[in-house]
Protein: DUF4767 domain-containing protein
Amino acid sequence: MKKQVAGTLVLLAALLAGCGKSADQTDETASSKQPKTEVKDKQSSKSSAQAESSSSAASSSSAKESSSASQTQAMWNPSKAQQLKQFMGRFSQKMNQQYQAYQPGNNVNFYGLQIPDDVLNHKNGSQASIGERPINVKWSTNGQAGDGVYSLVAVYSDAKDQSYGNQHVYFFTIVDGEPQVLITMQNQGMPHNYLHFSETKNQELRQEFAQLVSEKDM
Structure:
């Protein structure tokens, strides 16, 4: 009987020892797996931060592009040119002067000068000036020919139908973002081959052109 009890106690002790070892191994296994979960969590956080950073950079870039596009928006375009043409039709009737539009390759004979080509190309030394100050004039379809340059966006003249000495040429220009309507009635050659312009005093012309230049998204 005592031998049976002793044997039973030995068996129980062995079982308890085995369970303890198994529990220790389970804890070690769980402990060894825990750092991997932490690494995955860190990698996930890093990826999320990178994604947020990329999204922020993309938004910033898009905002800059939008701002740049707004700043460089054309000051002149075909729609504005058409509106100016319609206005000049009404202006012609009001002034009893037949104004027609001209551009490079389509010139008006203005006292022997082919306008605007002779001035734009400085043919025979022709030079546009305001008073005695020569100005740099370039044809432009968007009103942005460069700093200090008079961007010539439209030319109107009644020289084809008007009598000698009463002919007008209007240069519609934009210089450094500012609209200026220049006029000349010069009917003879001048020193330095200057074609003298001055800013028109006609308020209706000035206001109409300024309004067209300032309008957006036309």
